[in-house]
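To whoever is on call:

I kicked off a structure prediction for a single chain this morning and the downstream step that reads the tokens threw a length-mismatch warning. I double-checked the sequence; it's 193 residues and nothing unusual in it as far as I can see. Pasting both halves so you can look.
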Amino acid sequence: AVEREVKEVISILSESDLLLNEDFTKNNLEDHLTTQFYPVLHIATHGKFATEPNNTFLVMGDKELSTADNNIPENKLLRLGELDKLVRLGMGEDKLLNLIVLSACLTGSGDERSALGLAGVAIRAGADTAVASLWSVDDDATADLIAVFYRNWKGGLPKAEALRQAQLTVMDDRRHPQHPAYWAAFMMVGDWQ
């Protein structure tokens, strides 16, 4: 449901650019972040967290790749250090990356060596707020939750309340089981306003 998710985000956030499937490459992302300021960065893809930093990554580009495939080409992986670099590129001297949303699985998971996983990297790199998942997420429920979150936030709710309300909406949506696995995976770090 990534395509549905990002198209919904684009419809809610004005002045957005979409890098979807084969256009979602490290080079294209870097080009966009160095030529224009984006206060919000939304990344919806497969992700994997591991104790070894070099084995923690987001998958770029091809909608057919998944983290279950151990033969993902290197140019399709966005590793921790590269995410840090890209977040820093997205900020100018007087510009702040207000929000980064990493809606892939396990983007908020961490351990004693990498607190908060990929979300922690984004915060350390200077993002004001990061939204990330603590476990593997359901695609359809995530797409719904993310859309409601952005609508709530753009409607004037503080980020934390927008996320809480989105979680309640998905929890009450009869299209998804009420089990917390479908609505409770996402957490927020950084500025909750």
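Update from on-call: the warning came from a stale cache, not from the record. Cleared it. Sanity check on the structure: The first strand starts at residue 40 and ends at 43.
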